[in-house]
C-alpha cells in the first residue's frame, strides 16, 4: 500500500520577496498577514508565504475571505494552510489551486461549511 501524498505548496516566498512582488512595503505585508488578507507560516524560523497565493503579482482575490472564514471557525494559520492544500481533485488539486480558478465559489462554500 502506498503512503498518502503530503499536501503542500509548490513553492514558498519570503516576506521581502512578497513585498517586492506585490509592490508594497514590508510593513504592508506584515499588516496584510495580521489582518488575515495573506497567509504566512514559519519554516526554519522564517515566515514564508505559499507562492500560489500571490499569483500574478497580486494576492488571490478570494483568499482574504476564505482565510477569514477559516479563522472564524477556529483555524490557526498552520491549520488553514493544511486545509488549503488538502488534496481534492474536485477543486483542481486542492483548495489553494481552486481559489485561483473556476472553483473559487466552491472553495468559499466549503470554507463556510467548516464553521458548522
UniProtKB/TrEMBL annotation:
It comes from the Bacteria. Residues 12-53 form the DNA-binding protein Rv2175c wHTH domain. Pfam families: Rv2175c_C (PF18367), Rv2175c_wHTH (PF21531). GO terms for molecular function: DNA binding. Keywords: DNA-binding. Residues 61-115 form the Rv2175c C-terminal domain. This is DNA-binding protein. It comes from Actinoplanes aureus.
Amino acid at each position: 500500500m502506498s503512503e498518502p501524498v503530503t499536501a503542500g505548496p509548490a513553492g514558498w516566498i519570503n516576506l521581502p520577496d512578497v513585498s517586492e512582488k506585490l509592490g508594497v512595503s514590508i510593513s504592508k505585508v506584515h499588516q496584510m498577514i495580521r489582518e488575515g488578507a495573506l497567509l504566512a507560516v514559519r519554516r526554519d524560523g522564517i515566515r514564508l508565504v505559499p507562492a500560489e497565493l500571490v499569483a500574478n503579482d497580486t494576492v488571490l482575490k478570494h483568499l482574504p475571505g476564505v482565510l477569514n472564514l477559516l479563522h472564524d471557525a477556529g483555524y490557526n494559520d498552520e491549520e488553514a494552510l493544511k486545509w488549503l492544500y488538502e488534496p481534492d481533485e474536485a477543486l483542481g488539486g486542492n483548495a489553494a489551486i481552486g481559489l485561483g480558478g473556476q472553483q473559487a465559489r466552491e472553495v468559499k462554500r466549503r470554507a463556510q461549511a467548516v464553521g458548522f
